[in-house]
Design brief:
The protein has about 280 residues and is α/β, with parallel strands linked by helices. The chain contains nine helices and six strands; from the N terminus they run E-E-E-H-E-E-E-H-H-H-H-H-H-H-H. A six-stranded mixed beta sheet has the order 1-2-3-4-6-5. Helix 2 packs across helix 3, helix 6 packs across helix 8 and helix 7 packs across helix 8. The radius of gyration is 34 Å and the shape is elongated.
Length: about 280
């Protein structure tokens, strides 16, 4: 079992052997990594190869490929990647390899991907009926009343919940990941995600800056229009109040804004007097 370090997007993962000898890697991610399909394939391949080496090393000459069992990669996302949100009412996705001709072979790699955030939205204001939903509720719920009701309905969940609670309280129980290569791959993926986010942030910042420049130029044009209109109206010897009324009517602005432009616009005649010797 592994409790992830602070540079990882994982919460925890655990490798278990099932009754039929199959192996399952179950992990929970805080934020879904990019390239979830490719990542799952790499982890599944690593798990399958490790089982092969272990079984062959144990049986030696008696080894047969029939001794290799299914490997399951089960990933629960606290915040799932965008691909999953195209299916807002589906929160348990099963994958396995299949032939396009109908030929059936026992290919060993299986995948179960569960977006918990989608489950929470879907389950909101719904009663827990299926056992599968009860399991997922146990993982996502932090309301004591609901947890108690769930344990009363499914008493076998009590020990599981208590063990999970103890694990969360003792996060120093950190153990090794599958391999240094996969660990490095995860670190690189996190860095890639951070770099991509920075690039998007920089691009948005540049776009906002360009929009601000455009708005500033548009505002300058509006200011020149208002000031030009005021000078024309002053040339007609209209009073300030008449000019304000015409500005409001013509440009659909309020009196306060019209008065502001009137105050900052110099009368052409006054400008001529200021320039005279």
């Amino acid at each position: 079992m592994r409790i992830a370090d602070e540079t990882s997007l994982l919460i925890t993962d655990i490798v278990v052997e099932l009754e039929d000898g199959s192996i399952a890697n179950v992990e929970m991610q805080k934020i879904g990594y990019l390239f979830p399909g490719q990542r799952c394939a790499c982890y599944s391949a690593d798990l399958l190869l490790r089982q092969y080496k272990r079984v062959r090393g144990g049986k030696k000459k008696k080894f047969s490929y029939r001794d290799i069992k299914n490997v399951y990669t089960v990933v629960l996302f606290e915040k799932s990647p965008k691909e999953f949100h195209k299916y807002p009412e589906k929160y348990c996705h099963f994958f396995e390899q299949m032939s396009d001709t109908g030929l059936k072979l026992e290919l060993l790699q299986k995948y179960v991907l569960i977006p918990l955030d989608i489950f929470v939205k879907y389950q909101h204001n719904r009663n827990v009926i299926e056992r599968q939903d009860a399991w997922l509720t146990l993982l996502v719920c932090d309301e004591p009343e609901k947890i108690i009701a769930l344990i009363e309905k499914y008493p076998e969940f009590r020990q599981i919940y208590e063990e999970g609670y103890e694990i969360c309280r003792n996060t120093e129980r950190v153990m090794e990941m599958f391999s240094k290569e996969l660990y490095e791959l995860d670190r690189n993926t996190v860095q890639y995600m951070m770099d991509e986010l920075q690039e998007r942030t920089d691009a948005q910042r540049e776009e906002i800056s360009a929009q601000q420049d455009k708005l500033s130029k548009q505002q300058d044009m509006i200011d020149d229009l208002y000031k030009g209109t005021i000078n024309i109206l002053r040339g007609l010897n209209l009073s300030d109040q008449e000019i304000i009324q015409k500005l409001c009517a013509q440009y659909q602005i309020n009196e306060t804004e019209a008065r502001k432009y009137l105050q900052v616009t110099v009368h052409p005649g006054a400008l001529h007097l200021l320039q005279s010797p």
